[in-house]
Amino acid sequence: MLSYTGATYWGLSSHSFFLGVAALFLLLNAGFIYSIYNLVVRGINNEGYSVAGDTVYWNAKPLADAEAGSFSQIVEKLAFDKNRFYDAGRVLETTADPASFRLINDLYYRDDKQVFYVPYHEIKLVEGADATTFEVVEETSNGIKTDAQDAHFRYYSGEQVAPR
């Protein structure tokens, strides 16, 4: 049978010592505990984008004007909703129309009027590309490697490389 012996630890009663150790443990692990709470209870990732209910989050912080119903992530830090584009949770200025922005294939996207190359965390306009005839093709012709074409030009990594 266990009984209270009145032992002390560095001059503290066992009760005070236990409370101090518990408080120190919680203090040192507060970030981890909050991360688990966010993920399990709230359904929010602590890194990157998350959508929970009507709210979009970047690194567990709500994005005030983001529209959860139309929100879509492109790559790790790049995303959009029907109104705007985001880069690491900040509004990104671009000529692309978020309402009509659609994936063509891996790195190429289009809106109603333009074609874009999205290599990592930027949306680059493909200069001179015809959005209506643009298609992704992998070919090498006359020593020129291309990954896309339209009615007028061939492209590689979002740049014109040769007339068609």
Task: Describe the protein's architecture and organization.
InterPro entries: DKNYY. The chain crosses the membrane at residues 17-37. By secondary structure, this protein is α+β, with helices and mostly antiparallel strands. It has a domain at 96-164. Helices cover 17% and strands 36% of the residues. It contains 2 helices and 17 strands. The protein has helices at residues 14-28, 30-42, and strands spanning 8-9, 12-13, 49-52, 55-58, 61-62, 72-73, 78-80, 85-87, 90-92, 102-105, 108-110, 115-117, 124-125, 135-141, 144-149, 153-156, 159-163. A 4-stranded antiparallel β-sheet has the order 6-7-8-9, with no helix packed on it. The protein has a 4-stranded antiparallel β-sheet with strand order 10-11-12-13, with no helix packed on it. It has a 4-stranded antiparallel β-sheet with strand order 14-15-16-17, with no helix packed on it. A hairpin with a 2-residue loop joins β14 and β15. The radius of gyration is 27 Å and the shape is elongated. It starts with 7 loop residues before the first strand and ends with a strand. The relative contact order is 0.08.
